[in-house]
UniProtKB/TrEMBL annotation:
Organism: Eilatimonas milleporae
Keywords: DNA-binding, Transcription, Transcription regulation
Assigned GO CC terms: cytosol
Protein name: Cyclic nucleotide-binding protein
Residue stretches making up the Cyclic nucleotide-binding domain: 21-123
GO terms, molecular function: DNA binding; DNA-binding transcription factor activity
Length: 211
């Protein structure tokens, strides 16, 4: 596998970091794993999920090219093990620094500190926004908004009910019930492992409620 030569930016403060390739579907870390490397993504996307004891999953965040993993930063700074799991959603290239090199670079490079803490701050703000959304925005509105986002990428929306539930912070049964209701109302049509929006107007109205 050749390394990417374009369409990504490697900051000067990471020029000595190793470059690693993470194939799509790879579990990057899981709950209980020691945290011993810092990652800065060059290309691709990694999803971080929190898995409860009862097996329910909620997506905490995704990070992509030019971003870092806030949980990794927190664990490295605190000397903690991971409390969530991460999976590569796409083929991903990243810069990697071992824990001791991360600490050394943090102490000597202002540019590196800026990358680490600006990413940490932005991700924390996004996670607070997600908590507010899950707590106060009705699931109909959140599901409609997510469905329309995916519809704009492809008319055939291929995603499991479990994955949708994790992304939106709800139960799989809730997603299944809502999609069944929408199908009866003629908003969508469902197939095996996918659904297609037949009428965007009612979903756009749902998604905009409260704006």
């Amino acid at each position: 596998m050749s390394q990417p030569q374009e369409n990504f930016h490697r900051p000067d403060c990471l020029k000595d970091a190793s470059t690693v390739f993470v194939p799509k579907g790879t579990r990057v870390f899981q709950t209980g794993d020691p945290c011993n490397r810092f990652f800065y993504l060059l290309t691709g996307s990694i999803r971080v999920d929190l898995i409860a004891r009862n097996g329910r999953t909620i997506m905490l965040y995704r990070f992509g090219g030019g971003e870092t993993c806030v949980l990794t930063t927190s664990c490295l700074l605190g000397g903690d093990a991971y409390c969530a799991e991460a999976v590569a959603e796409e083929d991903t290239w990243a810069c990697a620094l071992p824990a001791d090199a991360f600490e050394a670079q943090l102490s000597r490079s202002a540019d590196f500190r800026r990358i680490v803490f600006s990413s940490f701050s932005a991700r924390l703000a996004a996670m607070m926004e997600k908590v507010e959304e899950v707590a106060f925005v009705p699931i109909d509105r959140r599901l409609a908004d997510r469905a329309l986002q995916m519809h704009r990428q492809s008319p055939d929306i291929r995603i499991t009910h479990e994955r949708l539930a994790a992304d939106l912070g709800t139960a799989r049964e809730v997603i299944s019930r809502k999609l069944a209701e929408w199908e009866k109302q003629g908003f969508i049509e469902r197939g095996r492992g996918m659904f297609r929006i037949r009428d965007t107007a009612p979903l756009e109205r749902l998604a905009s409620l409260g704006d």
